[in-house]
Design goal:
Blueprint: H1 2-14, H2 24-59, H3 79-107, H4 113-125
Length: 133
């Protein structure tokens, strides 16, 4: 959320850059930066939901709502129970760490939108059109 807020705050400086051909790469970079944080937020939440579903299945819980005053006790019968829980948690942490790389690779293809937006802006404003004689 912090990176998304920063991208929104500095975005107003980069939006006018699409009007200049030589500076459009700045807008494209900001657009990748902005979409990267949007995609990261969605993917991180999806990853956390998957970890929560796995933990729910591991503990055989009926739901995530526990009545007040009741606690869940994890009884360790075998050593494999503890290793299974630790492996689930380790996979969840490693997947959350790699979410940033996934989001940046997905957002890397977003930069082509800048040229489409620039063409649309020029078309709406009439900049660059040759007037008939």
């Amino acid at each position: 959320m912090w990176g998304y807020a920063i991208a929104k705050m500095v975005g107003w400086m980069f939006i006018p850059m699409i009007m200049f051909e030589r500076l459009s790469w700045l807008f494209d970079g900001w657009l990748r930066f902005f979409f990267g944080f949007l995609i990261y937020g969605v993917m991180a939440r999806a990853n956390l939901v998957l970890v929560a579903i796995v933990l729910k299945a591991f503990f055989n819980l009926p739901s995530f709502s526990v009545p007040p005053g009741q606690a869940y006790f994890f009884e360790v019968r075998h050593l494999s129970d503890s290793f299974g829980l630790l492996s689930f948690l380790l996979i969840g942490v490693l997947a959350l760490i790699s979410t940033g790389q996934f989001a940046s690779s997905i957002a890397g293809g977003v930069g082509g939108i800048g040229s489409a937006v620039r063409g649309l802006a020029f078309g709406l404003t009439g900049v660059g059109k040759v007037l008939p004689k």
